[in-house]
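It would be a great kindness if you could assist me with a short task in structural biology. The full record is reproduced below for your convenience:
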Amino acid sequence: MRERSCGRRRVLRGLAFCAVFGWRFESASAQPAGRGTPVRRVPTVVIDPGHGGVDPGAISPNGIYEKDIVLATASEFARELAARRDYRVVLTRSTDEFLPLRERVARARAWKADLLLSIHADALPDSEMRGLSVFTQSSQASDREAAALAVSDFAVLTAQDVPSALVELGCLSNPVEERLLQRRTYQQKLARGLVRAVESFSAAHGPA
């Protein structure tokens, strides 16, 4: 795992965790409540596949686009999480669609998200670098460079009213991870790890 400075950061163990136009999975567990029976509140998790449309994101040496990798993995993640029937799960985009960063946050707010997870993948100058990273927002940046980066690349983390994290699934610039990230079995493995992280977060914090 590599480390980066950008405000407060956490790299969790193993596979870590981190309106109206998106792809919505409604919880199938809800049943009509009887008279006098309290209705259980189902938390909303918004999954945001980065980039899309005219914005390909990072591009691997072999021409693999970040926007395609993150959409495929986010879709697996959404299916896995919705299957638990304990969450309302929404994707900010389900197709190769360009969304401005502020629109992603606006959609999360419109859906009253209890958690926003933005899914990305890296491409770095050093092809030896690999690993998954998780970024969260701090009230105070560690330096000016980190502050500028947070405002431009990490805008999805600036919504103080929505708990959020940005997950980098791995490095497309690394030959091993470039191959792994294209495999559906690996995408499913990442998705299951993210589901466990959301469940741990929910157990610790409960609905917002």
Notes: The CA atoms of residues 23 and 46 lie 10 Å apart. The mean pLDDT is 80. The chain is about 30% helix and 15% strand. Residues 184-205 form the longest helix (22 residues).
